Inverse folding.
């Protein structure tokens, strides 16, 4: 489940659930929409991501890379250490500004569309 | 030479007279010249010199200074050799000269100074030897060495391109082959006719194996080097015949030479190729090509594409090039041969790859459609297993189905169509659909089977079949499940409770489609910790024992089951029973989780688990779930890295593997061992960012968290990974490894 929200300067991508091969079909469309919005800043909210592997990482990398090519920046917030590990193995950590101060909301869904609360991941202290 | 010792007459010193006669009659041509400063006039020659060259000292004297030079042909090393003469040093060299009979010969000329008593060099003596034979032989050897070297290089090129053609999944196979060919010609490239010509660096194996397309209209940016020619917009006047299309259509065998300074009709193959190619050649080499040689890349039935080479001529030479091509002088023979061989091999390889990919897709899709599926049902721990024993197909006659009919109601089917060939699989597929559709409409198993009987009788399904259909209904009051079931000629399900096993052998009846009387329905209640076991006869059937004995063995084995998870129950049964199954095996294990008891009892169950997963993306999440649950059961801490490794391995299996994916887990006591098996024999790759594989970092992640390897297994491969023990993460990872991974 991936939601796109936008303001005049920022595109926010709220991702929930597993980010793996099973979700790959929706990646191109989302990437195209994010690029089409042409905002300087892309915020990827990972608070409710339950799992991400290299396929999911490749998706985030492609987003960050196309942002950087336009001179924009990508902020990653709510990513847990395993997600950062995956991005690091992919050699892509420097594409992201990792927001380590962000505190994910405990259970309440941040978007409007989400009905069922997803399992919350343990956050690093 | 002039002095000998001894007393015999014959050994007296040679007189000067005898010496001069000897030199005069010697078989090698000799001469004496004057000094360099005097122009080295020839003062004397011997008989052999006159014989060989046809001129004497008198004839040479009229030629002016350096008369000998007029006898030999000009060569680039002359000036260097003359330095010796000027300095008064001996000189030895090989020159080419004409013989008296007009033939050319190689002479080794040795010129030595004859200093006078004061030390000045006023005379030279020259001796010449005919070394034509040696020189020619050496030249021939060099030439044949060169031919051999070229042949070896050609063979090597063909071998390398054949190797590249072996892996057409590699996205730059054709580009790399073209690069190889550029050792022979200045420029080479492949074009494929995939619904119109397209420049090809690799092969899209998913394309139909046809090479169709007569409209070559893919956009090409304008090139300045083509104006003002351009394609002719309307009528046929001034338009050159479209030989490239003829080549694609198989009208011509090729190779053909294409003039790039001619006009072609719009959307013609020749015109398109001309525009695309001129742009590329100019970009890459800076030269504007005059003509190109086009070879057909032919498959079995059609020409799939083109192999285009440019021999290096420029625009103005086009006319001459065409003439040379027609005379066969355009390029060396071996170049044409090599290009032809490469084009032919590429055609066969592309054709094969596409045909194979098509067959493979078809078989995969059909097989996947036939394979049993397991729905995730809430509130129950369900493990399923399906192993077709057919050598050639991934499907057999056994099947199971786990259906979430409604909230709190689950349908379970296990069945067995006679035989385990493709026909059995087809019958199974039909039967499965029939049972499913009635299962969703009606709940009482006996009624469902009655309807199935009626329909199957009219459907003429060619094989008889047995099955059990059961429903499980959740009773929230005491968290129990009410079971209702009916059997059509199938072995009874087993109920495992507290080390006791009961056969659910009520409601028996004849095979599916042979129900003459209404089907009965048996009932039972499942409590927490109970296990319900459905199976087909492949689990217990052996040639050397009766089915009854087999069933007793299964019951006996089941009483010893200690596992507290469905996968563990299945594992225990398989490890003790299905060591050498002779038939298809299908098993469904349903366990009602016991929130209290499951955590208390330390089980003696073997610490290995296995799952068979269909090759689909949803299996990746299921595999992670299985690993998570198993790690919990075994009390292992490295769940986070286990999840990641399993996800990458299974994703690889889904993306690049064929057939079902088998997942196995072992607790080695020294870290979790994960095995993922699929039917594709090609090993996994660790490339960082394989161009056509999204990510490509999967195996790198595995490598960071585990020791891994692979080996051939059955017709495919098995990739294993052993997680490094949690206690000691490699130091280099320390700053980046997530806390949960440590």
């Amino acid at each position: 489940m991936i939601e796109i929200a936008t303001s005049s300067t920022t595109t926010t991508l709220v991702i929930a659930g597993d980010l793996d091969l099973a979700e790959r079909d929706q990646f191109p469309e989302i990437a195209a929409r994010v690029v089409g919005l042409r905002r300087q800043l892309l915020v990827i909210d990972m608070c409710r991501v339950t799992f991400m592997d290299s396929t999911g990482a490749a998706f985030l990398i492609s987003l960050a890379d196309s942002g950087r090519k336009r001179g924009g920046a990508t902020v990653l917030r709510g990513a847990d250490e395993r997600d950062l590990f995956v991005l690091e193995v992919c050699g892509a950590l420097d594409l992201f500004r990792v927001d380590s101060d962000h505190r994910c909301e405990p259970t309440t869904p941040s978007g409007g569309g989400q009905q069922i609360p997803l399992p919350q991941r343990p956050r690093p202290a | 030479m002039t002095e000998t010792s001894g007393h015999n007459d014959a050994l007296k010193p040679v007189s000067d007279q005898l010496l001069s006669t000897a030199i005069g009659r010697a078989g090698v041509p000799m001469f004496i010249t004057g000094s360099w400063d005097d122009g080295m006039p020839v003062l004397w020659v011997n008989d052999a010199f006159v014989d060989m060259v046809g001129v004497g000292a008198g004839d040479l004297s009229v030629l002016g200074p350096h008369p000998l030079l007029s006898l030999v042909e000009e060569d680039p090393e002359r000036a260097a050799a003359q330095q010796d003469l000027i300095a008064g040093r001996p000189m030895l060299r090989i020159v080419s000269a004409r013989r008296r009979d007009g033939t050319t010969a190689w002479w080794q000329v040795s010129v030595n100074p004859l200093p006078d008593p004061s030390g000045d060099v006023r005379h030279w003596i020259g001796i010449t030897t005919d070394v034509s034979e040696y020189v020619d032989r050496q030249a021939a050897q060099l030439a044949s060495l060169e031919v051999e070297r070229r042949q070896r290089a050609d063979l090597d090129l063909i071998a390398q391109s054949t190797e590249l053609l072996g892996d057409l999944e590699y996205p730059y196979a054709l580009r790399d082959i073209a690069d190889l060919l550029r050792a022979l010609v200045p420029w080479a490239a492949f074009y494929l006719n995939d619904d119109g010509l397209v420049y090809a660096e690799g092969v899209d194996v998913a394309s139909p194996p046809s090479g169709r397309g007569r409209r070559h209209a893919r956009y090409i940016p304008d090139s300045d080097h083509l104006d003002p020619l351009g394609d002719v917009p309307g009528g046929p006047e001034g338009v050159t015949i479209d030989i490239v299309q003829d080549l694609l259509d198989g009208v011509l065998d090729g190779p053909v030479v294409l003039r790039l300074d001619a006009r072609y009709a719009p959307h013609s193959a020749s015109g398109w190729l001309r525009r695309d190619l001129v742009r590329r050649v100019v970009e890459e080499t800076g030269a504007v090509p005059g003509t190109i040689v086009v070879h057909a890349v032919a498959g079995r039935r059609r020409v799939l594409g083109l192999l285009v080479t440019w021999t290096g001529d420029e625009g103005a030479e086009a006319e001459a090039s065409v003439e040379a091509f027609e005379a066969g002088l355009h390029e060396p023979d071996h170049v044409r041969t090599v290009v032809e061989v490469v084009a032919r091999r590429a055609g066969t390889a592309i054709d094969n790859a596409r045909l194979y990919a098509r067959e493979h897709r078809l078989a995969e899709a059909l097989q996947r459609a036939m394979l049993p599926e397991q729905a995730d049902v809430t509130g129950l721990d369900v493990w399923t297993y399906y192993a077709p024993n057919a050598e050639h197909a991934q499907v057999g006659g056994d099947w199971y189905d786990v259906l979430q009919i409604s909230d709190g109601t689950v349908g379970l089917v296990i069945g067995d169509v006679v035989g385990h060939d493709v026909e059995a699989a087809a019958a199974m597929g039909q039967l499965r659909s029939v049972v499913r559709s009635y299962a969703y409409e009606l709940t009482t198993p006996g009624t469902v089977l009655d309807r199935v009987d009626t329909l199957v009788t009219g459907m003429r399904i060619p094989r008889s079949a047995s099955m059990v259909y059961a429903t499980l209904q959740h009773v929230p009051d005491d968290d129990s499940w009410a079971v209702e079931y009916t059997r059509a000629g199938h072995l009874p399900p087993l109920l495992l409770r507290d080390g006791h096993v009961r056969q659910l052998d009520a409601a028996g009846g004849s095979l599916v489609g042979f129900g003459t009387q209404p089907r009965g329905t048996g009932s039972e209640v499942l409590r927490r910790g109970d296990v319900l076991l459905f199976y087909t006869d492949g689990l217990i059937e052996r040639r050397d024992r009766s089915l009854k004995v087999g069933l007793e063995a299964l019951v006996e084995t089941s009483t010893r089951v200690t596992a507290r998870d469905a996968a563990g129950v299945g594992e225990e049964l398989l490890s003790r029973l299905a060591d050498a199954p002779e038939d298809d095996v299908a098993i469904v294990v349903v366990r009602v989780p016991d929130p209290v008891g499951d955590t208390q009892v330390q089980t003696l169950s073997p610490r290995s688990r296995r799952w068979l997963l269909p090759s689909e993306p949803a299996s990746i999440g299921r595999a992670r779930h299985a690993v998570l649950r198993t790690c919990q059961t075994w009390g292992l801490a490295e769940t986070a890295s286990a999840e990641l490794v399993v996800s990458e391995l299974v994703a690889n299996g889904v993306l690049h593997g064929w057939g079902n994916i088998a997942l196995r887990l072992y607790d080695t006591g020294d870290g979790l061992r994960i095995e993922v098996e699929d039917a594709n024999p090609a090993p996994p790759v660790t490339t960082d960012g394989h161009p056509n594989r999204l990510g490509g970092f999967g195996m790198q992640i595995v490598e960071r968290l585990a020791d891994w390897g692979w080996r051939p297994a059955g017709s495919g491969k098995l990739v294993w990974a052993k997680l490094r023990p949690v206690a000691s993460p490699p130091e280099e990872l320390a700053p980046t490894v997530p806390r949960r991974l440590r």
Q: What stands out?
A: Chain A touches chain B through 24 residues (CB under 8 Å). Residues 2-99 of chain A form a domain with the Transcription Regulator spoIIAA fold (CATH 3.30.750.24). Chain A has one domain: 2-99.
